[in-house]
Write a structure and sequence with these properties.
The complex is a heterodimer of chains A (449) and B (455). With 449 residues, chain A is α/β, with parallel strands linked by helices. Chain A has 17 helices and 15 strands. In chain B, β8, α10 and β9 form a beta-alpha-beta unit. The chains are: A alpha/beta (449), B alpha/beta (455). Chains A and B meet through α1, α2, β4, α3 and α4 of A and β1, α1, α2, β3 and α3 of B. β4 of chain A pairs antiparallel with β1 of chain B, so a sheet runs across the interface. Bound molecules: iron/sulfur cluster (SF4) (2 copies).
């Protein structure tokens, strides 16, 4: 890979975070801190933790901190629920000046009391924010006392924002989940043909689609981490005989812990795109080594593929010569998107993530064509520059990237919180192609001068 | 389904909030800073806060919102953020090259006690560039307080009284309103033929046109030259006390520019007052163009008043806007029974209660409230209409009440930030929105025999 010459990148420290695939070898540096003074697109630990835990639908999610952190995370994820909607409320201790001076423990304790009483919740997550880390409230002690008092689970989430980035938040969330699912003294009864599905937050109902496929194969989903999950279901997590992980960035840690503690093996899967979906379903079937499951899996893949293949291929013609840029949160999503774009005949010319890991960047690098720009923790100026230079017609990103793309006259797809249609599985592949078409081929671009 | 609010009012002593009607200071400071020409707002704290504030503003305005961050790490939170800030200043001017960098703090940097002016004293600021700052701890006040603090920061750092006699020009501080409102206010003052400086002015920044190019710093915003010149104006008009009075007081002290505080000009009365204040100081008459608009508005109000009379309405949002809206709906004959803001401040309750009293009404009025409480009020005394931001949609759905979206943030509808609610034109738009919401509902609920063509 060719290193980018120094004077080409506006700031020296950023040089190592951008590579162009080519002949020379250079390692992309990732998982570093953002540089002070950058317009980073990155989020914080609390954000990461909240994203992972938020879909636990019947929990009280109480944010211990000043009001902002809670305000901005009030029902912003499109994770759907088939039961309780409690998680869609916003609870905050709304710390005030005197709390900052004298500590917020009392306020936290009485907030928990009132919320538990009001909503009869069996599970409370208490998130710590930056300021709590500094004023030194003992979250652990307050939660423990509250749990005893009410006879329920009150779990602290150590998510002070400055101790790392979003990835550290994923870990904090996994730690909280581990505390929740540990069986304590209870005997764990393993259930056959029953698996946990990790790393799907049921955005636009995606986890339901996968659950349905698995059911058709003869495999039951014990609980999803964490899309549309609830307290009692999560508690049963140790009973599964396999963990499948979709969003590895957020869930690998939990899976390896569950292997260690409950002896549950895990495999990585991806349900984005036709190829990956079929491949993942097959690998799940393989694990069970059961001819009936294998037969049903092949049957499912055959009928579903037949249904959608022609539609997806029809779009290839329309997309001839189009190029895409990708800037998403995790590496897993980036990898899947490269493949998914390939299926519909679009070349990815720029790709980056907020929190991708080294091994993920290696995979990305193997997948993309020569000349593709690969970058970690990009700022808007860089995104603009490479999108323009590479002639991208379409950007896949999150909320902050949308208007940037539009200003450049480039089409856009939200592959994040604001996604509106399920993009998973066979039907997701069709939705994806349709969404690409509706933005890429809209007449509005004609009016851009 | 989304209705978790019980009807019985329970005494809440914990001090926590359920479904807040406010957010934190820095986002207000960020928004105000965007109203300076070629300014990059800078968030001194962890990167997470900055990401949230940018996302939230982006969702409301649907335009790119840029701001840099000091990207705190654990080390900075222990040893102080001086080093981070100095690096940040160097990088911001080297990479993005704004004219102005406007720093606001976050809860974290406030709690560890970072002394920004001291840091600035030691930092290398390139020749001809300007750095200003405001302290914005979120455990005090709300996003409106943050807006107010940053606006005052502009005065503190930039306003200068350079001339012996004051110029024939007026300063206008519009408050936390949309760029569409700012454009409308400017149009009114221009129509009066008066020289003015509006600050902050986010029009042309967060409603910038599509050109096929990404402009880091779009055309709009109050220039530094103008900000300096605010010290030479004859008068400052404050539109909405919560978001803007502090800056005007600072300007009065620093440069002896007298200040007059008015309501956000929503509706006939408040717009009249705004224009009369301008006339009294600067010109002899109000141009026919504006007289005509006023006449049209009153005509519309007369044509439609039967739709509004006695209709109960619940209003929530930011204090300046809510106070002005209350006055306006009263002028239509509506009955505001619940009025709430999340921002603390006792004058809010006083002002709203006084207006209600004057109309012979009594209602629930609260500052520093939350939407849980607002919802409980509505359950106990139902209304015909809710006016507020996007977060009102949960209550609107649970109680099956129409919602007219006004204020910040509006995350589920577009175009609103381009359209004014201020001035006579803005009032016409409000009348249309309210009327449509009520009639739409009437149509929806009408039995076949009551379903009418002409309404
Ligand atoms: S820490 Fe403070 S500044 Fe940051 S988002 Fe939370 S409330 Fe706002
Ligand atoms: S204060 Fe910390 S936890 Fe809260 S938003 Fe900011 S960085 Fe995240």
């Amino acid at each position: 890979m060719a290193a980018i010459p120094l004077n080409d990148v506006e700031i020296k420290e950023r040089e190592k975070s951008i590579v162009i695939k080519g002949k020379q070898k250079k390692q992309l540096i990732c998982d570093t801190e953002s540089i002070a003074g950058c317009v980073s697109q990155r989020a914080c630990v609390y954000c990461g933790a909240r994203v992972v835990l938020n879909p636990v639908t019947d929990a009280v999610h109480l944010v211990h901190g000043p009001i902002g952190c809670a305000s901005y995370t009030w029902d912003i994820r499109g994770s759907l629920s088939s039961g309780s909607e409690l998680y869609r409320n916003s609870f905050s201790t709304d710390l005030k000046e005197e709390d900052v001076i004298f500590g917020g423990e009392k306020k936290l304790a009485s907030a928990i009391d009132q919320l538990v009483e009001k909503y009869r919740a069996e599970l409370v997550f208490v998130y710590s924010t930056c300021i709590v880390g500094v004023i030194g409230d003992d979250l652990e002690a307050v939660c423990k006392a509250a749990a005893q008092k009410h006879g329920i689970e009150v779990i602290p989430v150590q998510s002070s924002g400055f101790i790392g980035n979003k990835a550290a938040g994923y870990r904090a969330a996994c730690d909280a989940l581990l505390r929740l699912i540990k069986p304590g003294g209870r005997q764990v009864k393993k259930r056959e043909k029953c698996i946990n599905y990790l790393g799907d937050f049921n955005l636009a109902g995606e986890a339901w689609i996968i659950r349905n496929y698995l059911r058709q194969m003869g495999v039951e989903v014990n609980v999803t981490f964490t899309g549309d999950s609830r307290y009692t279901a999560l508690k049963k997590a140790p009973e599964a005989c396999l963990n499948i992980i979709q969003c590895a960035g957020s869930m690998n840690y939990l899976a390896s812990k569950m292997k260690e503690l409950f002896d549950i093996p895990y495999i990585n899967v991806s349900f984005l795109g036709l190829e990956d979906t079929a491949d993942s379903l097959r690998r799940i079937a393989e694990f069970f080594n059961d001819s009936e499951i294998t037969r049903r899996t092949e049957e499912l893949i055959r009928s579903e593929s037949a249904r959608v293949k022609l539609i997806v291929e029809g779009y290839r013609e329309k997309f001839r010569g189009k190029k895409a840029a990708v800037y998403v949160g995790g590496g897993f999503k980036a990898i899947s998107l490269i493949k998914q774009f390939r299926e519909i005949g679009i070349e990815v010319v720029m790709i980056g993530t907020q929190t991708g890991r080294k091994d993920e960047y290696e995979t990305i690098n193997e997948l993309v064509n020569d000349g593709t720009v690969v970058l970690d923790d990009a700022n808007p100026t860089e995104l603009e520059r490479f999108m323009t230079e590479k002639g991208a017609h379409l950007l896949v990103g999150g909320v902050k990237e949308r208007p940037l793309a539009y200003k450049l006259g480039v089409a856009f797809i939200d592959h994040n919180h604001d996604r509106k249609h399920p993009l998973s599985g066979f039907v997701g592949a069709v939705n994806f192609a349709e969404e690409v078409y509706s933005t890429l081929c809209s007449p509005v671009w004609k009016y851009v001068r | 389904m989304l209705d978790f609010t019980p009807k019985e009012i329970i005494e809440r002593t914990s001090g926590g909030l359920i479904n807040p009607a406010k957010t934190c200071q820095p986002i207000g400071a960020m928004y105000a800073a965007l109203g300076i020409h070629k300014c990059l707002p800078h968030s001194h704290g962890s990167q997470g806060c900055c990401a949230y504030h940018r996302s939230h503003l982006t969702r409301h305005f649907r335009d790119p919102i840029l701001a840099s961050t000091s990207s705190f790490t654990e080390g900075a939170s222990v040893f102080g953020g001086g080093a981070n800030l100095k690096t940040a200043i160097k990088n911001v001017f080297a990479i993005y090259n704004p004219d102005v960098m406007a720093i606001h703090t976050t809860c974290l940097t406030e709690t560890i006690g970072d002394d920004i002016p001291a840091f600035l004293g030691q930092a290398e600021i390139p020749e001809g560039k300007i750095v200003i700052h405001a302290n914005t701890p979120s455990y005090v006040g709300s996003h409106i307080t943050g807006f107010s603090n940053m606006t005052r920061g502009m005065v503190n750092y930039l306003s200068e009284a350079a001339t012996e006699t004051k110029k024939e020009q007026v300063n206008i501080i519009p408050g936390f309103v949309n760029p569409g409102d700012m454009r409308e206010i400017k149009r009114l003052v221009r129509a009066m033929g008066i020289n003015f400086i509006m600050f902050p002015d986010t029009s042309g920044v967060v409603d910038s046109p599509m050109t096929g190019k990404f402009e880091m710093f779009p055309q709009g915003g109050t220039t530094v030259k103008e900000l300096k010149d605010t010290g030479n104006s004859k008068l400052t008009i404050v539109l909405g006390s919560f978001a803007s009075t502090d800056a005007a007081i600072a300007l009065e002290r620093k440069c002896k520019v007298p200040a007059k505080t008015l309501k956000t000009p929503i509706g006939v009365k408040a717009t009249d007052e705004f224009l009369m204040t301008l006339r009294n100081t600067f010109v002899t008459e109000i141009p026919y163009e504006l007289e005509e608009e006023r006449g049209q508005l009153v005509d519309i109000m007369v044509d439609t008043h039967h739709q509004f009379h006695g209709k109960k309405v619940a209003i929530f949002g930011d204090p300046d806007i809510v106070i002005a809206l209350t006055e306006f709906v009263l002028s239509l004959g509506m009955v505001p029974v619940h009025v709430l803001t999340g921002t603390p401040g006792s004058t809010f309750e006083k002002e709203v209660k006084a207006m209600l009293l004057e109309s012979g009404l009594k209602g629930n009025v609260k500052a520093a409230g939350d939407l849980f409480q607002f919802h409980q009020w509505i359950k106990n005394e139902p209304v015909d209409l809710i006016i507020g931001n996007t977060y009102g949609k949960y209550i609107a759905r649970a109680e099956d009440i129409p919602l007219v979206r006004v204020g910040f943030p509006i995350l589920d509808r577009s175009v609103h930030s381009y359209m004014p609610i201020v001035g006579y034109k803005g009032a016409m738009r409000l009348v249309e929105m309210i009327s449509n919401a009520l009639l739409e509902r009437q149509d929806r609920d009408a039995a076949d025999e009551d379903f009418e063509l002409v309404m």
